[in-house]
């Protein structure tokens, strides 16, 4: 018991360095110790290869003899950056080429996994030839041929004369502004005895996985995929991605571009893991700088892609602006983009016709089919835009505008329920001429508060499980697809509707699959996969049946990171920087959880544990002085706060001032 208390006290102490406290969660931080990483093992050798293990021990050379002999090294986790190695050719005609892949499925001496474009031959990218004649000595990959995400690298001899190699390393290119990749500002820790790997939750939340995935997506501004795409074979990652760097993009290998929908999940991850939001500000500034001055339309993606024509991604940029402001309280920045922001809200409001619903005409979206006209997903996003815009206008003291947006939000909520609720299904339908009940709009409706009762939310949560197989929910709106992006939203909907255990089941199925499957990198999260777990995500929807094009490090799949913090731990902020917060833990079938995050106001930490079998609860809460919050407890009983007995309000909540509190509930 004494040991336990000491652990509580130490772990709740926040260091002034902006780092999360040290503890038993640290072993799950597999981010590299150094920005220079080296192969951890040899995966494969083919042909005449000598001394391959020397590349791991760093004690000598490996020699490839004969045209086509090759070997593959494994960096152990997803990495990205420029490779350096020593080359020792045996003659002037010796030749060497490199290929890269995230998944071991695409290890090949003739091509990399595809990142430039998808092609049914799965060999768009090809290999990188080292310029001939090979120079004896240290070689570094040219900057424009950067591979942003890979785990396996293959070296192949391209001539009959032998070539020796040694001293392979990769200089990590992501998180260019941070020396120590393991320096997290937040953490989460819980044992999950119900799962085959009881450390699963800590792994999926911490590292390797969700938090590390977003780190691999935080890149220098001049490392974007070249557009128009370079011709096959080849790749080039030296395009400019925005107005400033570092900048947050959708994926490590590809697209390497700013996508605001993706940020809807990736940015909350960033907040609770590194609290490093400059890359987000740079991404948002980039999108606002590309607003269409006459219509107010925002691009669907950042440059050089600068894809146009998506009402939903337009909405995500506005929602992302709110998220950024909530986490940082950066009023100065908000004021600089405000006139463009209001134009962009007006752009969406202009699509609301006399039915009171938005007619979605910018049809591009996260890949789902349909989506046009009076569509529920688009209108759910508009509702969230109006609610958050109203709040932002309030922070800027624009009370009239704030009230007008709020009023329109309320009207839209009523129309939304009239138009889309399908009583026979107990869910929302995609539009008024279908009975298809999509995963996206139903998850968003609960998450954004479009439901009008707890029963309605519960019905949706239950209804969503009809889509589940052993690996996760198969989207009705994109058949044969499991989307960890939309599932990240669904996950939150289950917690919000009070179905914690269901949310945990979803996490174990879907994120368990992504984390452990040997088709992927076992360190970062897939962009998506098919209903049977294969890598052919979007095969029939733009990806040319090219499973090698799928990204294995996509921040939009990182939903568990913020969900474990905001719902399971139960600590979340409700106004900029956490001046107000809420603590509402979800027991989720666990016996204890702890964690925390920081904001510019300081450290927000909590630890809860069930007391014995009687159902009591003990909580340690630590929030900055000067803040205040509301406390809600998941068990009933006699409550004491800091040793004094306390009475909850009629709604079961209690206001608390910031500072350190200990709460005990005895049944
Ligand atoms: C994955 O594991 C299965 C079962 O052990 C094995 O048959 C398969 O070859 C492995 N696949 C890869 C790509 O390593
Ligand atoms: C090496 O093999 C490739 C593929 O078989 C062939 O195209 C190429 O001409 C060969 N190079 C030499 C130097 O023999
Ligand atoms: C080995 O590679 C590193 C870069 O990772 C380089 O700094 C070093 O000089 C190389 N060693 C030799 C002996 O060339
Ligand atoms: C693969 O397909 C792409 C796109 O059709 C084409 O440009 C490329 O030449 C093909 N590569 C090979 C090796 O056939
Ligand atoms: C990218 O690199 C290629 C090859 O070095 C070069 O031709 C091109 O001009 C570069 N593009 C940019 C935008 O720097
Ligand atoms: C606002 O939009 C204009 C185009 O109308 C653009 O030139 C300007 O850079 C944008 N300002 C900001 C701060 O994004
Ligand atoms: C939605 O707007 C488009 C483009 O203006 C129009 O063609 C279409 O008829 C509208 N849909 C409805 C249902 O009004
Ligand atoms: C209505 O939804 C269905 C199912 O998603 C879809 O097939 C159809 O295209 C949608 N209608 C419009 C106008 O987008
Ligand atoms: C809004 O008004 C309050 C009270 O007058 C003031 O403290 C605050 O600085 C104002 N905020 C902005 C962004 O102008
Ligand atoms: C509120 O909705 C009405 C009706 O669609 C619209 O005319 C008005 O511009 C909206 N107000 C704001 C502030 O967007
Ligand atoms: C998995 O599904 C894909 C279609 O998405 C199909 O091509 C593949 O054959 C299936 N794999 C297995 C093992 O059933």
From TrEMBL:
Record-annotated Alpha-L-rhamnosidase C-terminal domain positions: 579-640
Domain Alpha-L-rhamnosidase six-hairpin glycosidase per the UniProt entry, residue ranges: 247-466
InterPro entries noted in UniProt: 6-hairpin_glycosidase_sf (IPR008928), 6hp_glycosidase-like_sf (IPR012341), Bac_rhamnosid6H (IPR035396), Bac_rhamnosid_C (IPR035398)
Keyword terms of this UniProt record: Signal
Cleavable signal peptide: 1-18
SUPFAM superfamilies: Six-hairpin glycosidases
Gene Ontology process terms (BP): carbohydrate metabolic process
One MF term in the entry's GO annotations: catalytic activity
Name the UniProt record assigns to this protein: Alpha-L-rhamnosidase
